[in-house]
User: Which sequence fits this backbone?
């Protein structure tokens, strides 16, 4: 694996239901345009509130992928 | 939206079941006394252990609300 | 000055024109309900973009005031 | 204890004699207006100097209390 | 409770399904060799991606336990 | 707004006159190649000095934009 | 001293009286089972409150010791 | 430029009017006694409040200069 | 140089031999697709271990380049 | 007070007895060569251990003083 | 790989010659008593100076290993 | 060693060849004007790129020295 070079990009997923769902949605979207996605790191978890309830979660990730 | 002023307050929710449930409980409690709750930011996630199992999650949030 | 106790509260000001204007607006609003405001600390500077231009700045402050 | 919600507030105590005395003074003052104080966290320790000597310590705390 | 001494150790749990499941697995494993586990703190949440989907979550915790 | 995915990219603007002007220049440049710019976050403010005066400000931003 | 290897472990001491007393108690306990203790670093200072007074201080330390 | 050595010193400028003015004042003062000032980094922005208005901004900078 | 806009991207280089070699490899790879590379910042240094020895270093960098 | 410029310098005091004593010693030493000392900020608290006991505390401070 | 649990421990290596040599020495020492060492993270790099020259580097690492 | 007071100053070394060489150069330069240099801490590692290659490393250090 050595001598590989990776790139990291920062994305934000959102979901009405859970933190995991927001992460999955962000990774699914990233995989449409990026190949060789390898790992993710959660940077920040926040969300919006409407009428005293969670409207959606917003999770900021860094995703790493191998450059070919 | 410009020229609005918001206030942020720090609360800690707890739940036996999940991180999301702790967040929801904290926001539900905050909405009893604060109007115009707009967003939340997760600051810290921790919890207590009893008999080698998670007794409850404790999630520290900042919640932002618009001042009228 | 010793033996005084201060409280810090976190507020967010917004302005279409400048960072300083957002700070001033937040402090002016805080001074309506809090007495003895003494200092502020800038925590975060961000803002929204519309049509490729800054719609408004949002500056998060902590403001400290003396408890009587 | 689970399902409780706590609030955290940031206060600054000062004392001519010691860090512990500044913490105690801040908590004593907070307990006049807040019920159910449960824990504190030291955020920052600083102070003022006069004539080459410590005039007073200033200790910033977060104090947590249970909401009823 | 005063005058107790605690030790904190850092562990990483992994799970295919959720962040909570990774935390629970790490604590269950730690409880096999450590007595008096008392609390945990989430330090970092990350994971691996395979074929554009989350292969597993990896959650780094500090767990605290009382020394006898 | 939920279920949207955003991307964040890091840019550095510079200006001889002010921090706000450096931010505006960076966002104007980013808007030439990126659609749906939505928000910015100031990460770092620095600059160069020539002959004891500020030659220019350099402001590092993260800008967020919605992926379509 | 070069070419030595050290290990650091994280402990939490508590005391009803002072921050220094909590540090001393934690180090005294650690020295029962660890040899060659060489230095400590204060990571966090907090504590519990009962009846509006400090019940005890809790100080988190890293202690370093030389491996033989 | 390589093999040069630089020194960084930390200064605090203040101004009644703006953040930029506080930075400029600090650099102008530093340039009276230091040669080869090359860059600055903003570390902290705060200020004092009097009668509910900003009395002055205080901006902490690191300034770097080449050693001869 | 003023009024230029720069972009920063995050990459990870790896090497069996040294930290510097990992940095050089990452920059060499980045220069294949990015023009006007101007500076780098080391964000994180880590690596993998096999059979009790370093298998390779992994160094995370931010690289800055001027936008034309 | 506005339009003053301050300088901050970093010093480390040590004491066999307490954190406060280490701070006082450092400030007393600094006041021998620096005029107009105005405030201090505690940056780090650590110390050395000998024979399982605290040999001395080491407290790192920033001290601020007004430039004339 | 999922459902594994890892432990991280913090060690400090030292070397007269280089940062890499200090890392290698720390890992070689750790591998004497720990099985399944998997990765390391550099936390801090420092060292001692004697007669105006580097006496030795000291590099603090976290090393992760799989629990069986 | 107790009751000594140390000062820390921040310097930046540069080198075309390696991180260690940049550290050594900075310390050699500092030792020309400062006595009793005792330790260093690496704060930041960065550098410049020319023609897709590292032009030089820039390493920011804090160096500590005993005041007499």
Assistant:
């Amino acid at each position: 694996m050595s001598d590989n070079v990776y790139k990291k990009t920062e994305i934000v997923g959102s979901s009405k239901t859970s933190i995991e769902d927001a992460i999955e949605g962000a990774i699914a979207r990233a995989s449409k345009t990026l190949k060789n996605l390898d790992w993710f790191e959660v940077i920040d978890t926040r969300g919006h509130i409407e009428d005293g309830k969670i409207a959606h979660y917003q999770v900021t990730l860094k995703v790493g992928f191998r450059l070919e």
User: Anything to note?
Assistant: The first strand of chain B starts at residue 5 and ends at 15. The beta strands of chain B are 5-15, 37-50, 53-66. The radius of gyration of chain B is 14 Å.
